[in-house]
Amino acid sequence: MSAFNEDFQPPQPPPMPEEGPRAPRPVKLRPIAIGIFVAGLIVIGGGIAKFIPGGIGTGIVMALGGVLLFLLSLIPLPVVRESEEPLSFVEKVTGIFFEPARVFRNLRSHPHWIGAFLIIVVLSLVYSFAFVQRITPERIVEHMVSKVAEMPAPFTPPPQALDKMRTDQMSALKNPVERAGGMVKAVVGLFVLGTLAAALCLVLVLVFGGRINFWQALAVVFWAWLPVIVIQKILGLVILYLKSPDDLHPIRNQDTTLQDNLSLLVSGADHPVLFVLLSFIGLTWFYYLWLRAKGLHYGGTKVSSGAGWSVSIILYILVMLFALATTALFPSFVS
């Protein structure tokens, strides 16, 4: 039996890896979220008291938007070790058209999305307002009601419901307060749509082996969307006032009058499903696919170019399938 070694020293434990910086949360969004929620409650109260027309629906949408924004503020921001200086807002707006890779790479460290979202909102609201003024509320409502009346059973509403729909829709397009409420709902709807797209991008990127923070995904969604919205809304406004209102469709042209896809080859009245399918084969759609794929590649961490393209194409197919299913159920709205 060996003698006890008094000089024995136990080995030192291996050094523990340094903890990275703790991910901050976007706490600046919380006062905005609370303000939107409180404003929504006030609008609901005004709707109940009947001095804000349509206030109940608008207030509920605002309150839910505030709750969603507050919940999102609990999600940590990304921590990127190789951080770079943030680009200015002007640099990002111009760069997204001419050097999108630089913009998306910068968004990985600084996922600022509010500026892009505001531009999208402003252009969308301006086009929507101009479209209603140009086509007239009467024509839009009558066309909508007539198409609802053509819906197959069991979706066909009774005559009393059609009359109420006609009155409500006319008031929504003519009453300034209700029209403002409709704009508020559109803003919240755009934000919810962007949030849903960002969540799907996050999940699909993980499926393909990459990593991306929710805020990085949200910034990519809105900044990839921005150039397409600029093209569609600005050119759409030009075409809106160059063409006769009688040549414009009260439903199909509500988003834009720009027709850069293959739907021009068929009639929406005769082949509604094929018409919608071909409307997804166009220049702005392919441009958006490319921008979103590039954004996910440069805006995430270890997201390959193939993964970016795969996620972008999957989202494109999901939207197309939803549009085709809706058209198959309600083909009269396309005619």
Please give the structural blueprint.
Elements: H1 29-48, H2 55-72, H3 89-98, H4 100-109, H5 114-135, H6 137-149, H7 159-174, H8 176-207, H9 214-242, H10 272-279, H11 283-299, H12 305-329
Helix pairs in contact: 1-2, 2-8, 3-4, 4-9, 4-11, 5-9, 6-7, 7-8, 8-9, 8-12, 9-11, 10-12, 11-12
If you had to describe this structure to a student in words, what would you say it looks like?
With 335 residues, the chain is an all-alpha fold. It is 66% helix and 0% strand. It has helices at 29-48, 55-72, 89-98, 100-109, 114-135, 137-149, 159-174, 176-207, 214-242, 272-279, 283-299, 305-329. Helix 1 (29-48) runs antiparallel to helix 2. The longest helix has 32 residues, at 176-207.
Give the mean pLDDT.
Answer: 89
Structural class: mainly alpha
How many H/I helical runs? 12
Task: Tell me the helix content.
Answer: 55-70%
How would you characterize the largest beta sheet? Answer: none
Kindly state the number of beta strands.
Answer: 0
pLDDT < 50 runs, ≥5 residues? none
Question: What is the total number of structural domains?
Answer: 2
Order of helices and strands: HHHHHHHHHHHH
Question: What is the distance, rounded to the nearest whole angstrom, between the alpha carbons of the first and last residues?
Answer: 98 Å
Radius of gyration: 25 Å
Provide the β-strand percentage band: under 5%
Shape: globular
Summarize it:
The protein has helices at about 30-50, 55-70, 90-100, 100-110, 115-135, 135-150, 160-175, 175-205, 215-240, 270-280, 285-300, 305-330. The protein is an all-alpha fold.
